[in-house]
Amino acid sequence: MFKDFKRKDPIFKDTWSLYLKFKNSLRINSLPTYRPGKSIEELQRELGFEDAIKLASNENPLGPPSSAVDVIQNSAHLVHLYPDGDCYNLKKKISFKENILPNQIIVGNGSNEVLELVAHTFLEKGDEAIMGEYCFIVYPIVTNLSEAFIVRIPMNNLALNLDDILPKITMATKVIFIANPNNPTGARSTKKDVEHFLEKVPDNIIVVLDEAYAEYMGGENTNVSTLINKYENLIILKTFSKVYGLAGLRVGYGMASPEMIGLLNKPREPFNVNQVAQLAATVALDDEEHVRKSIELNKAGMIYLKAELTKMNIKSYPSYANFILVEFKSSASTIYEELLKEGVITRPLENYGLNNHLRITVGLEHENVKLINALKKVVA
């Protein structure tokens, strides 16, 4: 019946012919696919686990601050209203935290949306965007969507040396993407490294410093927001998905000069950050105790995991985030599947070109113990 309809209806026939003509050339086919970590519910459906744990998506195992939970529960009666399209109260709170002005802030539906806005605003067909060999997969996705060229920088020992970027800059370079700490490897650059690099980058090239995991670095390395006052080509991204535990609400922000923010706002959709997300993020910024507990839990878990992995002769890489990158002597896909059978969800990295690696979130104490016990069983 469907074939008969295509043959008889001239409008459908013309549309179908056009699709067949161009479907193989659509650039969408060349995009890498973002594969989210398997959910606990999905594993429960597949294997029937009652006590599965998810260590795949770098979520905060402590969950959101209790103050944010209260606001979420008390704001249900507002969801029939459109949210504040300017995120006025949230930007005001961020400005106090980061010691910048509200007009130097753009809020997004997760920091991922701000990455999209960067690409929409500053990348066109034929431009070049520079990024690390093993970088957050959204960077190449948004670059490809803008029909720009991707320039990869080799990462010795899975760490990006910022000085290695400089020789790759050409007249076509428009944007440089840097994650600090880097996802999925966990490596970092210090504040001194970043400033040294920014001094050498031409000021007509946009530098995107993605700090989704910055709070876990600690010390002076997390206080770089005011650099936007010195470098007008700098955009710094942060998120509420990690240390603040609001991944399910999708809210993040970018910081740059007022002129840069004005440009980024042009392609931004109205009401892009929902009402509940704005309210929860605003109160979460006040809960410094929750942030402290999250960082301390991560630090203790990281020490435990590294020590146990060393005992098992399993290689792990230095990490300044809330996850650890583990390397095996052969393909990690089998180990990933066997860990699923033990009720432990980790993150395989074939789509990053890291076939022998798993990225593992640092969890609660009992989750870390369960992971290690499962690994001992699987590796043995």
Please give the structural blueprint.
Layout: H1 2-8, H2 10-22, H3 40-47, E1 53-54, H4 66-74, H5 88-98, E2 105-108, H6 111-122, E3 128-132, H7 138-145, E4 149-153, E5 173-179, H8 191-200, E6 206-210, E7 234-239, E8 252-255, H9 258-265, H10 275-284, H11 288-311, E9 315-316, E10 323-327, H12 333-341, E11 344-345, E12 347-349, E13 354-361, H13 365-379
Parallel strand pairs: 1-11, 3-4, 3-5, 5-6, 6-7
Antiparallel strand pairs: 2-8, 7-8, 9-10, 10-13, 12-13
Helix pairs in contact: 1-2, 4-10, 5-10, 6-7, 11-13
Key terms for this structure?
Aspartate Aminotransferase, domain 2, disordered N terminus, alpha/beta, Aspartate Aminotransferase, domain 1, 13 helices, 38% helix
Question: What does the model show?
Answer:
- This protein has 380 residues and is α/β, with parallel strands linked by helices.
- It has two domains: 124 residues, Aspartate Aminotransferase, domain 1, CATH 3.90.1150; 207 residues, Aspartate Aminotransferase, domain 2 (3-Layer(aba) Sandwich), CATH 3.40.640.10.
- 38% of the residues lie in helices and 15% in strands.
- The chain contains 13 helices and 13 strands.
- The strands form three sheets. Strands 2-8-7-6-5-3-4 form a seven-stranded mixed beta sheet, with helices on both faces. Strands 9-10-13-12 form a four-stranded antiparallel beta sheet, covered by helices on one side.
- Helix 6 runs parallel beside helix 7.
- The relative contact order is 0.16.
- The N terminus is likely disordered.
